Amino acid sequence: MSGLDSGAAERRRQFAEEARSERPDLALLCLLLGAEAGPVGPAEVVPVTPGETVFDPYGIDAAQIELDRLAGLLPHGSRSPAGWASALAELLGERCGFGGSSADYQRLDSSLLQQVLRRRRGLPILLSVVWIEVARRAGAPVYGVALPGHFVVGFGDREQPLLADPFSGGAPLSGRDAELLVTGATGAALEPSMMVPARPLEIVLRILNNIRAWAAARPERTDVALWAVELSLLLPSHPARLRYEHAQLLVQRGDFLRGAVEMEEYAEVLAGIEPTAAENIRRKAHAARALLN
């Protein structure tokens, strides 16, 4: 992760620290993730407290303020899960126009919270993050539900949640609707384990996986693939194979020595479990070193 300027290095440090905190802040993690893609537009000076402003080129403070503003538009007080879902759908789906379409899957912006708040378009998981963060600020019993292939939100009883689909503007989902979503994405039946509320770090890793998939389909965007992998490696729990993916990206980007070293380190970890795979990786490391000559 060398070559970062001081601001980027500080954001990485903050991301790692927040990910390891007792109660990770989902919005902050998503916004630090979004900052990796670069400034969101013309630099903004954002008022934080009376008489105090901050320079906010990455839109982190502006996005937090927008989430607070949206939450303030929801009537506070006790209401049923169905009441919360309806209020969120009316505010975010109808009045504000948050939603998605198939075209949004082709845009990196659709995975960046700052841009989703600006464009009001995004992938299901990012739109769900908006719903979760706005509803949470207003006191709603809300959580993410990581259905395979389509992220949604749940309200109320976690054993029998009321589900809504922010991608469709907040349309309510019956149990049958959820079954159809899962079957359409995986061909398998809906399992109770799929309805377990998603933890913040699980949501962040899934977003990073989406970004890695987006970049993998665009070989010219190894820059995006690299930062997505590097943020994933900062999470306290992540697939071990990401270390090898990181090494491969370094080699692809011409950093042959670092890539070879990381391949060799990963091969050592793998040697006692999959010796054949480890030997194959050592050969690739040797080939990467040969490119230095």
Would you give an account of this structure?
Helix 2 packs parallel to helix 8, helix 9 (222-234) runs antiparallel to helix 10 and helix 10 (242-252) runs antiparallel to helix 11 (256-271). The mean pLDDT is 92. This protein is of the alpha+beta class and 293 residues long. It is globular. The strands form 2 sheets. A 5-stranded antiparallel β-sheet has the order 6-5-4-3-7, with helices on both faces. Strands 1-2 form a two-stranded antiparallel sheet. Strand 3 and strand 4 form a beta hairpin. The chain has helices spanning 6-19, 26-35, 60-72, 81-95, 113-119, 124-137, 175-186, 200-216, 222-234, 242-252, 256-271, 275-290; strands spanning 45-49, 52-55, 142-147, 150-155, 162-165, 171-173, 197-198.
User: How many individual β-strands?
Assistant: 7
Radius of gyration: 21 Å
Sheet/helix structural class: alpha+beta
Low-confidence stretches: none
Number of helices: 12
How much beta, percentage-wise?
5-15%
Which descriptor suits the 3D outline?
globular
The major beta sheet can be summarized as: 5 strands, antiparallel
The helix fraction, in percent, is 40-55%
Strand order in space, largest sheet: 6-5-4-3-7
Oligomer: single chain
How far is the N terminus from the C terminus?
24 Å
User: Could you report the average pLDDT, rounded to the nearest whole number?
Assistant: 92
Order of H and E elements: HHEEHHHHEEEEHEHHHHH
Domain Protein SirB1 N-terminal: 65-209
InterPro entries: SirB1_N
Family: Belongs to the UPF0162 family.
Protein name: Transglutaminase-like domain-containing protein
